[in-house]
Amino acid sequence: MLCENPPVDEAVAMSRGAARTKARPRRRVSVAGVIGELLITAGVIVLLYVVWQLWVGDMIYGAERNASGAAQSEQWQQEWQQQNPQAVAPTPGATGSDPVTAPPPVMAEPGDGEKFAVMRIPRFGSDYAVDMAGGVTRPRTLDPIGIGHYPGTMMPGQPGNFALAAHRTTWGKPFNRIADLHVGDAIVIETEAGWYTYRFRTLEYVKPSAVEVLLPVPQVKDAPAETAYMTMTSCSPMYAMTERIVAYSVFESFTPRTEAGPPASLQAVS
To answer: Is the distance from CB of 69 to CB of 235 less than 8 angstroms?
Structure first.
């Protein structure tokens, strides 16, 4: 037989359980507990920021850097074609097999944060095209633009030391693969006038205080500069600033912007 109300014994047990539940004191929230929860939340936020800064953000920044450099290159080419309407435009992506070379034009030193060139390194991929600007400060050049030129050092193609700096991690990390360069790899500096081709020679690791790498002849004091060098500097090891990694290259040739197109040095490497 069904009953609408529970048996007496069951009803008594339920009432006693309810009484015990009501009598149970509420847990007090301590100051230490609140601080602990805040610290955990802050830790999660910091972790998410690190993930963004070192991986997700880097991918986005890197793509932006390459897109900006490619756009600048295209703009220079379009301006040249407008000034030379009779010239036949080179096939997109093509590079000349026998580049026409000429004496490198002398460039004025750029101001702090002033863009003046685009770096291309076939070893780093065909899409690698990073803007270069004057100065090596983080707020004006290295973080927002990419590659910075040490003030007072030479400009591309000129005898002496053309010295540069860029991040190896974060902010698009333009020099992330600097240790992957092979002897003889082309490092091409594209400007409005044409392409300056350098060839990589060697790597060196130095202390942050080793300013001798910026001398006209790197690491050699009071030596007359008869060769055009390029010095690329970045932090070492990864995610630290204990040392500096330095890549040295030697100038090979200047290819003026003509209907022949970019130099053969921009061809992909295996």
So the answer is: no
Q: Is 235 a catalytic residue?
A: yes
Contact present, 179 and 185 (Cβ < 8 Å): no
Residue 255 in 3-state DSSP? Answer: strand
Strands 228-236 and 160-166: parallel
Is pLDDT above 90 for 56? no
Reply yes or no on whether 182 is catalytic: no
Which of 3, 149, 167, 182 is labelled catalytic? 167
For 176-242, give the DSSP string: TTGGG--TT-EEEEE-SSEEEEEEEEEEEEE-TT-GGGGSSSTT-TT----SEEEEEEEEESTT--S
Instruction: Answer whether 146's CB lies under 8 Å from 132's CB.
Output: yes
The pLDDT score that the predictor gives to residue 8 is: 46
Pick the catalytic residue from 3, 149, 182, 235.
235
For residues 155 and 162, is the Cβ–Cβ distance under 8 A?
yes
Residue 168 within a domain: yes
Parent domain of 189: 59-84+106-266
pTM of the shown model: 0.78
pLDDT, tens digit, for every residue of 148-201? Answer: 999 999 999 999 999 999 999 989 999 999 999 999 999 999 999 999 999 999
CATH number at residue 193: 2.40.260.10
Is residue 57 very low, low, confident or very high in pLDDT (cuts 50, 70, 90)? low
How many Å apart are CA 192 and CA 197, to the nearest integer? Answer: 14
Q: Is residue 214 in a domain?
A: yes
Angle, CA of 186, 214 and 132, to the nearest 5°? 50
